[in-house]
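Z., the sequence and structure:
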Amino acid sequence: MDNLTHSLVGAVLGQMGLKRKTALAMPTLIIAANLPDIDAGCAVYGIESLAMRRGITHGPIALLILPLILWAAMIAFDRWQARRGTRPVTRPALHKGWLLALAYLGCLSHPVFDWLNNYGIRLLEPFSHRWFYGDTLFIIDLWIWIALGLSAWLSLRRERTGAPRWTRPAWIGFTAVCAYIFANGLITGRAEAQVADLLRRQGQGDALVVASPPPLAFWRRDVFWREGGRYGSGAYALGSGSTVEPGVPTGMDDLRLRLWAKADPAARAFLFWARMPVATRDGDAIVLRDQRFMQPLARDRFMVRVRAPDTASHAE
């Protein structure tokens, strides 16, 4: 998910009452909820970053070590302010046990939410390079922004006015988001099951079917499928059922592609990341894309042009 969502998750956890457990609880939760995204710096490598993101910093070793580093940094910050005489007098005592627990809670929330979209996350890196996909939420979900942001704001407002049960809005928002995620999971499952059934009737029983949530319209799904060297798309809407379009060749059986890709780091990175790759001819090049990201606003960001080894250059 995007970093605003991760930050709001940390803020809501704090407003649910966890911020009162120790000094620096709220910044610890918010920073921890974003901490695995320290790999964002690899974006400078362009398309090759697809093979670097959501990997080692989202795996079990990092999720064990990163909270410890944050915990130590927060303790050092608190002590530094105390030595300088700038520690706020209203700040409560720092409880090391609770601070460590909150660092782990915030950090672990990150891969949970990243798993919910269809971009992919390598939850077991470096022990396994396998990608995991939840296919439940769009990577930027406005409804989650509204629910988490509003509930955190209402809770903070009640807290500042001294109102009783100031944590209640945060708990309501947290519960609503959990219910929303669960409902979206059911919609995705229903969409994939219906399209798979339609494909079986057409004699394509072993097709890979992926239902992708579009922005805003959470009751709909863009559906992608591939089987036997062919790929196609479909659609699903809650209450309206599914449709599926005829398939076309994926182009991945081009004998030149494997040879050319070996000499092109961008192509290798793309194919490592791609869940549903397709290849098309474009002059003397082969253009690689992924079915999940072939919409007009995304297709140029998730594409690599592969040429023969003597002219292979860069991703576009």
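The chain has eight helices and eight strands. Helices lie at 3-15, 25-34, 60-84, 96-115, 142-160, 168-201, 255-262, 265-273.

Let me know what you think.
H.
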